[in-house]
Amino acid sequence: MKVAVLDVKGKDTGRKVELSDDVFGIEPNEHAIYLDVKQYLAHQRQGTHKSKERAEIKGSTRKLKKQKGTGTARAGSIKSPVFRGGGRIFGPRPRTYAQKLNKNVKRLARKSALSLKSKEKALLVVEDFQFDAPKTKDFIQFLESLGIAEKKSLIVLGGANDNVFLSSRNLKRSEVVTNSELSTYKILNAKSLVLLEGALEGIQSNLSK
Known about the structure:
Blueprint: E1 2-6, E2 12-18, H1 21-24, H2 30-43, H3 103-119, E3 123-126, H4 136-146, E4 153-157, H5 162-168, E5 174-178, H6 184-189, E6 192-196, H7 197-207
Helix pairs in contact: 2-3, 4-5
C-alpha cells in the first residue's frame, strides 16, 4: 500500500512511501483490541485506595453495655462498623490492577488499530521536520495545514524531538509520542493519526516480528 508524503505545510511532496500490508493492511481483530485497551486502562489506576477497618480505628475496645437485657442490639466496642466513626466493613485496600497480556496479542492489537485508521483514511504521512524553538503557534499552524486542528490527533515521531513535543504540550486535542510509545488506546483515541517518515521504519520493524 502506497501513501503520499506531505510536507510540514500540508502539501504533497510528490513522493510516496510503501506501507507494509502486514502492519497497515490486516483484517482487524476486535477482541485483541479490546484486551489491549482494557489492560492499558487498568494500568492507569493507582490502586492506592484505603479505608480503616475496625482494628485500625483509634478508640477504646471497652464493651459499651451488657450483652443482654437492654432491649437493643449487642455492641462490642465503639469501633463497631454500626456506629458513627466506626471502622468500615470490608473496605478497599491497596492493590494492583495490572493485567498480563501476551506480547503477540498486544502486537496484533496495534496492527489492527493501525489497519483501522488506514481503512478509515485517517492516517497521514508527513516528512520529518524540526522547529527552531518550542512555539505552540507553529504547531497549531502545522495542524491547520493538515486540516486537523479541530480534531483529536496523534503525531508519531521517529525519535525524541523536544521542540515539537513542547510546542504541543498545551493543546488538549493533540498528543505527540515517539514510535516506541505508541499504544492501541492512543491510536484509537485519536481521530487523525499523523506518522512522520522517520517513525515508519521503527513501527514496521517492531510490529512485523
